[in-house]
Design brief:
Blueprint lengths: L1 H25 L12 H28 L37 H12 L8 E6 L6 H9 L2 H6 L2 E8 L4 H11 L10 H12 L4 E8 L4 H10 L8 E6 L2 H6 L4 E4 L5 H13 L8 H14 L4
Parallel strand pairs: 1-4, 1-5, 2-3, 3-4
Helix pairs in contact: 1-2, 2-11, 3-4, 6-7, 6-8, 10-11
Length: about 300
């Protein structure tokens, strides 16, 4: 019951946040800081609620350990025949210049693994693993658009997977990303033939963004469809879960750490103040920095 209560509190917080995002889009930017809903003060309230949720989860985790409770993972339950992607979470490969804050060392390490030609496996998976909001997708976009990556791969493909890991649908999206026509193939064999023809002998980089699948059989099925590429082909996956990374057979799991306080403040300042003059207000700056400290390096 305690965990259920915390879940509902977290769900309410996300709903409130989504509502606030929508409201800000409708409010004239000039009037935001003169309205009753100051975004910096709102963010401070959100941070307090988030801190309370984290503290409650920590207490529940301690109780779990002291009682020797066993965690059992359940597969994601979907409506029958439902393969609808959550469009709100759909991503793309482009990242604007200056969008990435920090992460230079992370990028270098991942690029080095992608360019490593000594790996013998036919289909090599590299995972970026971290909490939501740490910038896994942004880092993958940055790597995807790196000049060395562009030069070293014949094809670069981007697929947003999200909740539903349906092999045929993912294969269709790979074909579309490779330049094929968008089509709903009736048979898996048909899309397999199309995919094989497109990847045959080509060194490719496939990014699978926002993956949640823990089913090793589904991973094996998808990887078997991707064997036709040249040696050195890689799959770069982003996920929140170590279990997903393990199920995919990743040869390298890159754990994305928290931002430094300086990096977190730079990101906060960019998002909260945008191009306005509020950052010149010392009171607002102090409130913003307090929010950053309370978030502990998690945006």
């Amino acid at each position: 019951m305690r965990l259920k209560k915390v879940f509902f509190e977290a769900d309410d917080l996300l709903d409130d946040f989504a509502t606030e995002v929508t409201r800000r889009k409708l409010v004239n930017k000039v009037g935001i800081f003169f309205s009753k809903s100051n975004p910096v003060l709102y963010n401070l309230k959100i941070s307090h609620r988030l801190k309370a949720i984290r503290q409650n989860l920590d207490l529940i985790a301690k109780d779990k350990a002291s009682l020797d409770l066993v965690e059992r993972r359940q597969p994601l339950l979907l409506e029958p025949n439902s393969v609808q992607l959550n469009l709100d979470r759909e991503t793309y490969s482009f990242v604007p210049d200056g969008e990435v804050i920090g992460r230079n060392a992370d990028k270098k390490e991942i690029v080095d693994f992608l360019l490593d030609s000594e790996v013998e496996e036919h289909v090599v998976v590299i995972s970026i693993v971290g909490l939501g909001g740490l910038g896994k997708t942004t880092l993958a976009q940055w790597v995807y658009n790196d000049e060395m990556v562009k030069v070293n791969f014949d094809k670069r493909l981007w697929v947003c997977v999200s909740d539903v890991f349906e092999v045929k649908m993912i294969a269709e999206k790979i074909v579309e990303s490779a330049g094929g026509e968008k089509a709903n193939y009736l048979q898996l064999n048909t899309v397999q033939n199309e995919l094989t023809e497109m990847l045959d002998g080509k060194k490719y980089l496939l990014v699978l963004d926002d993956v949640w699948n823990e089913n090793t059989l589904k991973w094996s099925k998808l990887k078997n469809m991707l064997i036709g590429g040249a040696k050195g082909s890689k799959i770069l996956m982003t996920t929140r879960s170590d279990v997903v990374a393990e199920a995919s057979g990743s040869v390298h799991e890159h754990k994305l750490g928290d931002f430094s306080e300086e990096e977190a403040w730079t990101l906060f300042e960019k998002m909260a103040f945008e191009c306005n003059k509020e950052s010149e207000n010392s009171n607002l700056v102090e409130i913003g920095k307090e929010i950053v400290r309370k978030c502990g390096g998690v945006p």
